[in-house]
Amino acid sequence: MKKSYRAIGVVAAVALAATGLVAGTSAAQAATKVLTISTDLPLQGSSFDSNDSTNKAIALYLKQVKYKAGKYTVKLKLYDNATAAKGSWDDAKCAANAQAHVANKSEVAVMGTYNSGCAKIIVPILNQAPGGAMTMISNANTNPGLTKSWNPGEPDIYYPTGVRNYGRVCTTDDVQGSAAAQFAKSVGIKSVYVLNDTQTYGQGVAQAFTTEAKKQGMTVLSSGAYGEGWDAKQTDYTALFTKIKALNPDMVYVGGIFDNNGGQLVKDKVAVLGDNTKVKLMGPDGFTGYPDLNKMPEADGMYLSFAGLSSDLLMKIDPKGAGAKFVTSYKKAYGKEPVGSYPVYGVAAVQVILAAIAKSNGTRKGVTNAIFSGSGITIPAKKSVLGKALTISTLTGDTLAKDVTIEVIKGGEETTLKAQTVK
Amino acid sequence: MAITLKKENKSKKIKATSHRKWTIGFLSAAAFIWVFYTYVLIRTPEGFQSVVQSWFPPTGLNEALVWVICALGLNIVVGYAGLLDLGFVAFWAIGGYSAGWFMSAFFHQANIHILTTANPALPGIHLSFWAVIFIGGLICAFFGIIIGAPTLRLKSDYLALVTLGFGEIIPQVFTNGENIAGFNMSNGTKGISPVDNIGVPGKALGPFDFSWKFAIFVLLTALMVFVSLRLRTGRLGRAWLAIREDELAASMMGVPLMRSKLAAYAVGAFSGGIGGVAFATHVNGVFADRFNFSISIILLAMVVLGGMGNVWGVMVGALLIAWINSTGLPAFGDLVNSTFNTSINFPSYNFLLFGGVLILMMLYKREGLIPESRLKAILHEADDATSNIGGSH
User: Fold this and answer.
1) What pTM value is reported for the model?
2) Which stretch of DSSP H or E encloses residue A391?
3) Is the ipTM, as predicted for this complex, more than 0.90?
């Protein structure tokens, strides 16, 4: 009996403390009603630099447009879909964020996510939002299945109401993998060994690369549709590369993300197969935007592809364009360049969202309709931070651009080699 | 002996009434929360609503209940039977994949629909949530017995190591189970999503039917509480306690070690399975990389922090830690950062805080927040020479 009283006391104390906190903060809430747009990115773990930079870039851009979208004022809210325990995106956090987006009445659209897996949880929930589907535009989800036929049932399983509400401003893995294979061919690669990190994204690019490499007449020495998987938990890949060495490939393609022990992988590749001039090494955009990788001496000469146009390519193509101007203003505001190229794409996604809000009646449904019906959304080349016109397909939500940038790591930095448009 | 037995009977009577009180307390607390979120919250000012959303979001509540269900399962193994289990995440994973297998379009080569609310046009195996709960629980119980069997001859540290291995192996099997001789068992790290909605009479629960899901999760928790409490006072529960306190003595007194231990693993695993299925419906999918070692450790911490062996202590411990993990710490961080205009990343200090609290608890309150009286008596035996260990609990 005594026990029960004590426990009730504990519960009551917690409840009291909680209400105290609630009362304390509710007084501080402002009463003005504005439309909220949000970002939903993993802000913990090794992709933090890139995503933090994306949030900063978007905050800066909103300031530049004076928080206006047509006749509406917009406000930015940041969501974190990572947990400290995992150090990367967390499924429960993604599900909780999705609910929070819908519950936040002033929120009309979401910019995110960074990981395709997280998008697969959030998109169906936003799709069923009461009062009409809520739009999410991603700057970094490259998994094709979110918008087009890929695995069985995709993409319809993500849109239970049958209405589309998801778009993206970056190109997809299939485009990127093909571009990488075409680039490999152009630098005289004859045989290639493909690895993947066994995740959705890694297998997607590896599969596209393998398919296109075969089409281009290269010899693919790895077996299977997407090559061999590397185990992110393994501490040493010497055995793997010793096996590959016997096959004598011209290039090793690593489809995956750097977070999955990519550093060790690159180190052991160089240790066994020699530096990246001897046997070339190439990775997808899951290896871009990591200062840790760029600084590794073993990464020197590694080719990278990026699903879009890299920031310095923007500067080169049109030094006076909106993209170059934005990168310059970012440098001025924060004292350094955006980390990797996703931050600029984050701003591009926000441009799409703002254009849709301007065209809409200020509701979620209105914003979704503005993007996925009628003439859809096109950001003209003059305004687009991507340096060229950005059109979102009203049918799939994909960008119509098929640009891929090829970069090479040189002297501790990602430097742009060329733009590769997929044929 | 006779005196103690008499005492035991008396205390049992008291215990039964206090159980009833507790059950009423638990259900009325749940009802209060349900009414608050379903009817009261939407009528409050928007500012208040958003504060509740950031401090106590309804989804966080449902997630916490899943943790409670799993922690109660672990409590049977660790708290009652005293078998240290460092791999409980395996059962959560198996439960989750049961939902993935039997409630989604994953096995697209099959087309089975039984009592389900899923779209009949979808391929795959679609069973009712209520059936899958039991299927998931039974599969887990089966694996619980499998892991229990080889550990029967092991004690303490060795036993912990075997369970640790089990907890590492099972998630790895799911992570790499995309191509087992050409058969896709788990879809690898891509995971299985989405899973079917929960069906209740008359409708299929969508992602926003929070209150329904809450009610269902409370019901499942209540079931686990009921099972835990009833088992504890029963023959099996007393056998577990005897094993926990002195295995050798228990076996000398005729307690069947093998049967009791296996039963502990099976019952614990069953609730892990229920939790896994519930969690899969909660996040609308199952993803292999969630099931890592830290989940087992957090669950163990919930049991230890709350009060090993005490159902209500474990529940409070689980709710508290789950809340801190998911929303408490980030929300607190936001409050501090906005008040003092700082930019400290509070969630990244999660484990530091966690470790600190655990050390403090071990130093000053070893028996947990709401201790089990029996355990408390043992731990404080030295403090009070006159304490009666075997007596009241």
Assistant:
1) 0.82
2) strand A390-391
3) no
